[in-house]
Design a protein that fits this description.
Distance between the termini of chain A: 58 Å
Number of domains of chain A: 2
Strand content of chain A: under 5%
CATH superfamily of the largest domain in chain A: Tetracycline Repressor, domain 2
CATH class of the largest domain in chain A: Mainly Alpha
CATH architecture of the largest domain in chain A: Orthogonal Bundle
Order of helices and strands of chain A: HHHHHHHHHH
Low-confidence stretches of chain A: 198-214
Mean pLDDT of chain A: 90
Shape of chain A: elongated
Number of helices of chain A: 10
Oligomer: homodimer
Largest interface: A-B, 43 and 41 residues
DNA sequence: CCTTTCCTGGAGCGCCTGCTCTACTATTGC
DNA sequence: GCAATAGTAGAGCAGGCGCTCCAGGAAAGG
């Protein structure tokens, strides 16, 4: 008998995934041939299809692996005493990879794939629903505490999520600055959650920093 | 001799473009074969390539045709006396097609293509820059008039544009309602332009309408 | 009428695709 | 050391691709 070494297996799998991520980000799913992934990973096609059933499966795995981490972040956010802290925590977590150069390409490929590939759509939907639910719980708590939200709690949650998605897509623009964008996004979230961010102190107009929300 | 009939030519071209738009929205550029476009348009491949040089060219034409209309809208917006009217005009113009069922698919395909196809990226960039410039002119005028913008005028313009893009992408979500989304977006734009939208009157929290900005 | 050009469908070409299959080596348990 | 199986490379296959090319119908000018 010979048993499988799960650790080595996972390492090799991750190696292939990393190589595939670069190709998918650059050329998309349809635009990336399996031969290209093999070349990038330095393996033969036999090896590739030993680890993954289909090309689509590779792309799915790239996002499926993030699901548990997001679930954990949601749980931590809800556990916070002050809802605004939870929202801040969740927003920060979801913005972690904003500076990753692969992100815009992968985000574009993902948005595209959601409209095309039903199985992938369900995968992403599960993740989205999870985050949405957490955000809605938190915004509902804010509303219950008397915060004057501009929209119903569910809609506020939807907008926060929309802003996050938009951030990842705009990360590919030529003069994109993650720090500025993050700061401004927090400001917008502050307004959406009924914070005092609407009171604009004079002089802030030209300063990219200076967000007192915490 | 025989002369070309430009009117008939344009009609046929538009017919092919309409058919292609449906296919591109459903399957993307790579996922749509030229044979499929031919079938959808009820023509042979000879005809298709008589009107368009390449498959990519068909996709480009789909967006290139909108450029002059957007330019005109920008000009009209800048010509307005009150900058907030101009912004409102431009935002409304850019949200015209939000209810079109093809829009989410085409937007996804476009976002994807921008990251892949350099020529298409330049095409979209030209359109984006044009709108951005108009918005920035208007927000700068607002700032000069003493309006307390939350960010520098250029950044406010960028955010308005980002919100518009996000709207088109989220238009594919299951419970998307164009009217609600538009109303809320105008509210956000109101805040971004230093309007009084931040003062939340009680009872607005559950009302999807009621935006007094004009 | 004839000529010229536009317009058209579809056969077909060369190429590339995702994936399978086979032959082989490396590593494990006994 | 032996058997069993995990892991690997790459040739090869069937099918689909974008696009070309050609033969002929349709329509305009003279």
């Amino acid at each position: 008998m010979r048993t499988v070494n799960p650790e080595e297996h996972a390492r090799k799998r991750a190696h292939i995934l990393a190589a595939a991520a670069g190709e998918f980000a650059a050329y998309g799913v349809d635009g990336t041939s399996t031969a290209r992934i093999c070349r990038a990973a330095g393996i033969g096609s036999g090896t590739l299809f030993h680890y993954f059933a289909t090309k689509r499966d590779i792309f799915h795995a790239l996002f499926r692996d993030d699901l548990p981490r997001n679930a954990e972040a949601c749980a931590r956010a809800i556990a916070r005493d002050r809802p605004e802290d939870g929202i801040r925590l969740l927003v920060d977590h979801l913005l972690t990879d904003l500076a990753d150069p692969l992100v815009p390409g992968l985000a574009a490929a993902a948005v595209f794939q959601v409209n095309r590939d039903e199985e992938f759509a369900r995968l992403i939907m599960a993740d989205t629903a999870q985050v949405r639910s957490a955000l809605e719980t938190l915004t509902t708590r804010l509303a219950a505490a008397g915060r004057p939200l501009p929209f119903p709690p569910g809609r506020v949650a939807a907008w926060i999520q929309g802003l996050l998605d938009a951030a990842y897509l705009s990360a590919g623009e030529p003069d994109f600055d993650p720090a500025t964008h993050t700061a401004e996004l927090r400001r917008l979230v502050g307004w959406l959650t009924g914070g005092d961010a609407s009171a604009t102190p004079p002089g802030t107009r030209t300063s990219p920093q200076g967000d007192p929300t915490r």
